[in-house]
Amino acid sequence: MSRLVITDLMVEHFRKFDRPQHLTGLGPGLNLLAAPNEAGKSTLKAALDAALFQRHRVSGSGASQYVNQWHEAPPAVRVVFELDGANFSLAKRFYKQQKAVLQRPDGSSIEGDAAERELQALLGFQTPERGGMRAELLGVWGLLWASQGDTIAPLDVSDTARDSLAECLAAGGVAAVAGGRRGSAVPAKVREALAAYVTPGRGQPTGRYKQLLDSRADHAQALQSAEELQRELAEQTQALLASRRDLSADRRGTDEEAESEAIRALRARLTEAQRLAQQIENATLSVSLAAQDVTAAQDAAKRRQETIAMADNQAKALAEANSQVGEVDQTVATAAAAQTAADKDATAAETAAKAARTNAERIVRQRSLVERQTALARETARLRQALDAGREAQNLSKAAKALPCTPEAVKRLRSLASGQATAAAAREAAATAVHFKLTLEGAATLRLNGEALAPDAVADLLQPAHLDLGALGGVDIVPRVQDGEALERNLQAAEAALAEALKTLGVADLAEAEAQAEQLAGLQADAKSAADRARTLVPEATSVADLGLRLQQAETDLQEITAALEGMDDIPIGELAGAEDLAKAAAVDADAKLHAAQERLGRARQTLALARQAAEHAADRLWTVQSQHDAATQALDAARSVAPDNTLTERVEAAEAKLAAAKTGLAELEAKTEELGTPDRIATQLERAEIGRDRRRERIEKLSLTIARLEEQVRAVSAKGPDEAVAEARQNLERVNAEIARIERDKDALTLLGQVLGEAAREAEARYLAPLTRHLRPYIADLLGQAELELTSGFSPSGLNRAGGQEKFGQLSAGTQEQLSILTRLAFADVLAAQGRPAVLLLDDALLYCDDVRLESMFTALERAAERFQVIVFTCHARAFDGLGGRAQRRLSIEPAEPIEF
Amino acid sequence: MIRFLHTADWQIGRSFASIPGDAAALLRRARIEAVDRLAETARAHGCPFVLVAGDVFDAEHLAEATLRAPLERMARAQDLIWYLLPGNHDPDRPEGIWDRITHIGPPDNVRLLRAAEPSPLGEDAVLLPAPLTARDHSDDPSAWMDSAATAEGVTRIGLAHGSIRDFGSGETAVLERGALAPDRAAKAGLAYLALGDWHRAQRITPNTWYAGTPEPDRFYAPGEPDGGEALVVSIVNPNAPAEVQRVRTAHYTWARLDETLHDADDIAALIAKIETLAGDPARLYLRLALRGSVPLAVREQAEDGLRRRLEGLLFALDLDDDRLLPEPTADDLDAIDRPGGILRLAAERLQAMADHPNDTEAATNARRALARLYLEARAAQS
């Protein structure tokens, strides 16, 4: 078993590293380099790739890609690794001064291409001869060392990687799944052979098979056509034979002469029959005319009898009409009397009703006026009280308005008095007080500012003053107060304003003003009280004047009502309601009587109208009947004047005798016709005989033509060889069917073979992938639970079976795809490790889309795998990995190092 | 002595369309050319007359060219007189083929025997023909010969078409109802009764013969006559048996072989055997049915070697190898693939299907698929 562990990595002037750097901490198990972006992780991955898999002699962009952009020194890498416990050191320098040195565990070393070939043999990959590395050369290393972004891309297993894995799986006892060249060539050949018969997709016939199917349809059509031709020929032949038989029958047993003689005899009979028919027609006409005469005579006699009967009936009707006129006139007289009586009753009832209504209305009016009068009296009293209160309020308000000391004026006065007291107090406080205790004499002699002093005078001085001591001289008193003059002016102004205000109000002092203000308030309160009382009594009044007007109106109305009541019955107020009820009841009763009388009057009028109408009808009928009677009598008289009643009877008898004679003549002629036959019957016989002869002649002619035509047709159709065509078409069908059957047998065999090959391929594939699946299954279980990853025979994930269904790999989330892709790489490494092949898994910036739970699972998988082979993870998500704890982790770091020695 | 050529059942117009390729056209042509060969045979044996005992044509309504072809050939043989009898394939019905020939006018040296009445055959003999007027008939059409009046001393020669009554089974069975009496020659005092209908020459009595068809059209086992003959009949004494000589007239030989194969040696032996079946294998039309259970390798040889060899060698081959069952050996399976390989797995599955006892159709299909797998695997290997 070959166990590979990378233990050290140094770079110098390699891409972003312009100084020697050293990846420290590498060793067996899980190695984790967590460093921020641009720390150089991908550069270290590239350095490992370059050292192990790139030719040191690579030129052009293959080499220049490693050069540091600021420092054109040749890039160099050293990798120290342990293989099966033995230490190797590989150093390579690219671009300029190219060099490769492999130091072996025994201390020896080899250089150049030999070193690379030995490394290739140790690790199992191909060295690129020209150009850069390619995935197909790296073999399975290309899968195990995933660069940034590789893990999120679809897992692309190169042919060489697939071969390496297949070799490992084969070494594990599993036969090659592809079955070698034949394994793919034979199914392809089978598909190709089947495709010659049916299309691969829809299985539609194609090629020769389709041609044969089409050909079968054509032959079937040809057979149908030929059989149709055969039938046509048979029918034509039958028709020809039948025509010949008919012709023979028509020609056989026909006597043309007898047939012509019979036709001539029929024609002679027809002439005789037609003559008799004419005679019968004439006799029939005579009978008809005689019958008409009989009918006319009988009709005349009948009409005479009817005229007589009608005249009698008219006489009876006239008598009845006269009687009816008399009866109806009596009825009209009775009805007219009844209407007059009813009219009188109705007039009386109407008068009574009108009187009752007038009385009731009068009492109602009286009662209304009395009620109005009472109400107006109460209204007048209320208005008068309100008017008095309103006028009192007006007077009190007027008295109040005469007093000037309103509360505002008093308030201002108080303010001015207060200002004056304040000014006086300020002056007094600032003034220099000079208290004199003088004798009267002294007082007489002493003068302050020229004025004599009282013996106990006190002088408050704000201004310099001169005390004339008389002979003694004088004393100048100078108070130290400032603005004494201003204080003095303030006091004077305050006093002047107060005095002006008192004068305006007409009072002597503030006390008088306040007493007057109190009196004013009392007046205003009384005025308000009176006004409130007036508004309470008549709230709808808008002013005192309005109250006056209302009172005036009420008094006028009261006077008018009182005047109206003066002419009325003197009914006490308390009895008015009862009187009104009685009057109304009397009016209703009178109305009812009036209505009844009017109805009786209406009925009497209607009866009279009907009676008059009946009288008119009776008169009309009498007139009509009279007219009809007159006309009938005149008509009968006129008829009798032309032909008396007995003449008519004689005419009837004569006409009947003539008719009998005509009928006898006709019967004799008809008897002759019966014997000879009617012209129609003879004409029909003649026509039938002639048509029969003509038709036979025509039929013979037609049959001859038909036979000629049919003979021609039969020969023409027969010459087409329908029997031959039918036989040929049948045999063609037989041949085509045989070939189709052969192709279908072949097709069925190929179809079965294709199916069986497919099943065998799937079985072999499942068996072949089993070790890989076995390694993969625990990883998948840790990540997703009960699930199975489907792999193609080329080892690429194709689908995920879970929860009873299969999801296509490409339709899984990006994160799940990446995780499954990494787990598949782990399984690859497991397969290699199990076969003792060197394997190191390196992931650069992977697991970008893991949530916390998945990251934990993936980390567990990496840890588990690291027990069997070295796992190196470069990541910029240090914190995420920190959260997973330090289980079996080797934390790597990038440190400055010494230059690489070659 | 009266000498004539007895032939029958030309069945001109038979299409052979069920035979694939050009063979059908060649067979049709061979039947026309048979008329020439019959003429040559007649001349070669000094026969001035040719009696055709029915079924000159294969059907009643043939194409104009088909109808005329044999007439033209007979017309060219001016030195011979051809007597043509309507048979069950070409009965004389109104507006039928004989009406057509009459309408277009037969060659001068061709006699149409359309009536059951004596017809002179040279100066010393009379023909008593029994033409058929329908495909099927219930009476013996030759019965009238018994009472046919002919001049004293002339040789009576009967000509009829149909099966012999009470003469075993097989071909006669279907035509029992209107069959001919086998002793008609004796009953009617015939020196010779020339019969048609059976396609192989057959002696019924010393003076009653079927001539058979001059060009074979059915398969028979090797050793059995396949038809393809005409009879040269010589009557020296009308009361004595006629002298009858069978003359080969066929261009093609038809043969049928049923062979069981076991190994590759059998195939080689079979080819050798076939080469001896006809003087010229290029004129042999062989129906070959193969049976047996053979290894896939032998099956491949039968398909690849035998079939292709015979197709090149023979005029036509009708090979039926459905019953030649592939029986894979261990070597066969190894030749397909090594154990565990896809092809090997597939072969083993097919072998299991082929051994299925209840579904013969599926088993047959599986055998074919297996044989095909072997072929393809071998082809891919090479």
What does this structure look like?
- The complex is a heterodimer of chains A (902) and B (382).
- Chain A is α+β, with helices and mostly antiparallel strands and 902 residues long.
- Chain A is 67% helix and 11% strand.
- Chain A contains 21 helices and 21 strands.
- Chain A has a 7-stranded antiparallel beta sheet with strand order 7-6-5-4-1-2-21, with helices on one face.
- The model of chain A is unreliable at 173-177 (pLDDT under 50).
- Helix content of chain B is 31%, strand content 23%.
- Chain B is built from 9 helices and 15 strands.
- Chain B has a 6-stranded mixed beta sheet with strand order 4-3-2-1-11-12, with helices on one face. A 6-stranded mixed beta sheet of chain B has the order 5-6-7-8-10-9, with no helix packed on it.
- In chain B, helix 6 packs across helix 9 (360-381), helix 7 (330-336) packs across helix 9 and helix 8 packs antiparallel against helix 9 (360-381).
- Residues 169-175 of chain B have low confidence and may be disordered.
Short description:
The complex is a heterodimer of chains A (902) and B (382). With 902 residues, chain A is an alpha+beta fold. Chain A is 67% helix and 11% strand.
Summarize the helices and strands and which ones pair or pack.
The complex is a heterodimer of chains A (902) and B (382).
Chain A lengths: L3 E9 L8 E4 L5 E5 L6 H13 L7 H4 L11 E8 L2 E8 L5 E5 L5 E3 H12 L11 H4 L2 H4 E2 L12 H13 L8 H16 L11 H45 L4 H146 L5 H24 L1 E4 L4 H6 L1 E2 L2 E2 L5 E4 L3 E4 L5 E4 L6 H22 L4 H28 L6 H22 L7 H70 L2 H32 L2 H41 L2 H63 L2 E5 L5 E6 L2 E4 L5 H21 L5 E5 L7 H15 L3 E6 L2 H5 L6 E3 L1 E4 L6
Parallel strand pairs in A: 3-19, 3-20, 8-18, 18-19
Antiparallel strand pairs in A: 1-2, 1-4, 2-21, 4-5, 5-6, 6-7, 9-12, 10-11, 10-13, 13-14, 15-16, 16-17
Helix pairs in contact in A: 7-18, 8-17, 8-18, 9-13, 9-14, 9-15, 9-16, 9-17, 10-12, 10-13, 18-19, 19-20
Chain B lengths: L1 E6 L15 H22 L4 E4 L11 H13 L4 E4 L12 H8 L5 E3 L6 E3 L3 E6 L24 E7 L22 H4 L4 E5 L5 E4 L2 E3 L18 E7 L7 E6 L4 E8 L3 H12 L8 E11 L1 H18 L2 E11 L3 H7 L5 H13 L5 H22 L1
Helix pairs in contact in B: 1-2, 5-6, 6-9, 7-9, 8-9
